[in-house]
Amino acid sequence: VGRLPIDGSNEPLVPMSLAPPPIKVFPAYARMGIPGAVDECYVREGVYRRLLAVARSLPEGLSLLVLDGWRPWRVQQYLFETLQATIQANHPEFDDQQLLVRTREFVAQPSTDPSSPSPHLTGGAVDVTLCDADGLPLDMGTLFDEAVPASHADALEGDPGRDDARRQARDNRRLLYHAMHAEGFTNLPSEWWHFDFGDQLWGHYSGQASVPYGPTEPDTIENRWRRQLG
User: Fold this and answer.
1) SS in 3 state form for 159-218?
2) pTM surpassing 0.85?
3) For labelling, which of 15, 139, 177, 221 has a CA lying 20 to 30 Å from the CA of 62?
4) Per residue in 166-219, pLDDT tens?
């Protein structure tokens, strides 16, 4: 994945809070008090427009709930280290390689390398779910960021038998997946909530020769002054 060339793009990050209904925004990490998390969900402009199209394609009464987009490196590092420490505490028999593989199943290794950035540092990765007309998330079988095998996108695809709750959660995942896929997003197989457009993960799963989105960050007043006065 990290060897895919990045062409580079000046496409700006935009806040998802600008979006009209039927999109809802809940910056999950800021609300959880994760150190360094921003109280906004930023994505590239192209991602923003595609998410709007996804939301407008959903059945009446449903909304797209955006939980995370662009992520500061500090937050990526915190998530990786916290999950790694938790896994190590529960599986002291794991060697370093096993620990790394299990951690990377749910959190990308932090990287600010311009040629191989963590997906959420590009503004092309987004974490989403579905919610009802009252803003309550639909049952997807697991919670957002639940680091268990049941969070794999296809984990509920077996015969649910008479388990109506499992069948409904499976159908909710299918609805989200197909709505996102129709607008060009790819899904990370280990996380039903994680989708990409324009970054290296997207390039890998969609068979691209190169990708547009490398690392970026939201515009700040300091950056504007530097451009204006430099």
Assistant:
1) CCCCCHHHHHHHHHHHHHHHHHHHCCCEECCCCCCEEECCCHHHHHHHCCCCECCCCCCC
2) yes
3) 15
4) 999 999 999 999 999 999 999 999 999 999 999 999 999 999 999 999 999 998
Q: Could you say which DSSP state residue 19 is in?
A: P
Residue type, 227: R
Check if the beta carbon of residue 45 is closer than 8 Å to that of residue 94: no
In which residue are the tokens 């530097």 written? 226
The strand pairing partners of 126, in sequence order, are 195
Q: How far, in Å, CA of 175 to CA of 59, rounded?
A: 9
Query: What are the beta bridge partners of residue 220?
Result: none
Q: Enumerate helices (H) and strands (E) in the chain, giving the number of each.
A: 7, 7
- Per-residue pLDDT, 162: 87
The total number of residues written for the chain in this structure: 230
pLDDT digits (tens, 9 = 90+) for 137-152: 999 999 999 999 999 9
Q: Supply φ then ψ for residue 128, to 5 degrees.
A: -140, 160
Cα-to-chain-centroid distance, residue 171: 20
